């Protein structure tokens, strides 16, 4: 993203802006997921989280669903592949 902003191409700037917008959308949800796991296990250590007595999916189902949604963004599945798609040209021509 920083490399796209440093170039002088309008296409890379639009892609970087889209990527930044996606990051601002999913980062708070990842923070909430980490805090939810801490709230349940009282630890940030992976060994404590893995060895918790109950499955965290059963304890935190909403956080599990939000992490699944975040994975679609991180893996660039449709419709979240906008920053790498070829729609920037149409957007610039239209403007």
Number of helices: 6
Average pLDDT across residues? 83
Structural domains: how many: 1
C-alpha-based Rg, rounded: 18 Å
Structural class: mainly alpha
- Ends: how far apart? 23 Å
Note the overall shape: elongated
Content of β-strand: under 5%
**Residue share in helices?**
over 70%
The largest pleated sheet is described as: none
The oligomerization state is: single chain
In sequence order, what are the helices and strands, one letter per element? HHHHHH
Total beta strand runs: 0
Contiguous runs where pLDDT drops below 50 for at least 5 residues: none
How would you describe this structure to a colleague?
With 95 residues, this protein is mainly α. It has one domain. Helices cover 71% and strands 0% of the residues. It is built from six helices and no strands. It starts with a helix and ends with a helix. The mean pLDDT is 83.
Summarize the structure.
The chain is mainly α. The chain is 71% helix and 0% strand.
Defining key terms:
95 residues, single chain, 0% strand, 71% helix, mainly alpha
Record the SSE blueprint.
Layout (H helix, E strand, L loop, with lengths): L1 H5 L3 H32 L4 H5 L5 H4 L1 H14 L13 H7 L1
């Amino acid at each position: 993203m920083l490399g796209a902003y440093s170039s002088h191409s309008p296409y890379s700037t639009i892609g970087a802006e889209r990527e930044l917008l996606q990051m601002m959308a999913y980062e708070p949800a990842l923070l909430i997921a980490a805090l939810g796991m801490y709230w349940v296990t009282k630890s940030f250590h992976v060994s404590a989280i893995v060895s918790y007595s109950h499955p965290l999916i059963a304890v935190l189902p909403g956080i599990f669903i939000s992490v699944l949604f975040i994975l679609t963004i991180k893996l660039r599945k449709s419709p979240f592949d906008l920053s790498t798609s070829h729609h920037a040209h149409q957007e610039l021509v239209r403007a």
